[in-house]
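User: Here's a protein and a ligand (calcium ion). What would the complex look like?
Assistant: Let me lay out the input and then the predicted complex.
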Amino acid sequence: MAKRILIIEDEPALQETLRYNLEREGYQVMVKGDGLAGLAAAREMQPDLIVMDIMLPGMDGFEITRLLRQRRNTPIIMLTARDAEIDRVLGLEIGADDYITKPFSMRELLARVKAQLRRVQMERQERDTPQTQPRTSGNLTFLPQRREVLKDGEPLPLKPKEYDLLLFLLAHRGQILSRQVILERVWGWDYIGGSRTVDVHIRWLRQKIEDDPANPRRIVTVRGAGYRFEG
Ligand code: CA
């Protein structure tokens, strides 16, 4: 099935160029020229990827990204026109996956689009591949077939979500994981609840797996960014 791309861009000439080039690559394309209409379309059509301008009538690209990120991790490629915008995009406060500076070549944009779609595909495969072999990480042993984790050989009394969370942390050990990413990947995109849920479960997990929960060595807090599992 063709991947669906939503373009939110108010400049008619660029709209057409983007549509033409993306359709020629076999993508199904929808174009919105207004921020509010773009946000509504993003929520309704649930595209596989969004290419979005920052300065838009109605609502700007920063705000749209912020609102979308509360629920989904659809890849977003920002089209930026000014250096000041790039700083904000790169500041991670926005949550865009990539950006491209105007004017840009279509070849470059298409390469970025492909890279983002490939990344999502790989993440999905990794998530859907059943891991059945026991794995160890420090003094923890994961027994996926029994959905059990042993600490120093003793089974931990983990609730199902704690197990899912710990497995997710293990699979991404060494990486900084934002609360939002954890929430989306462990609880699901359609989970309605705040990132406090993540903090609470991390606290419970620490009480079970850390030798000194007040001074965690395995699940480390990365200030202003999220958590990192030390394998
Ligand atoms: Ca614009």
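Summary: The mean pLDDT is 88.
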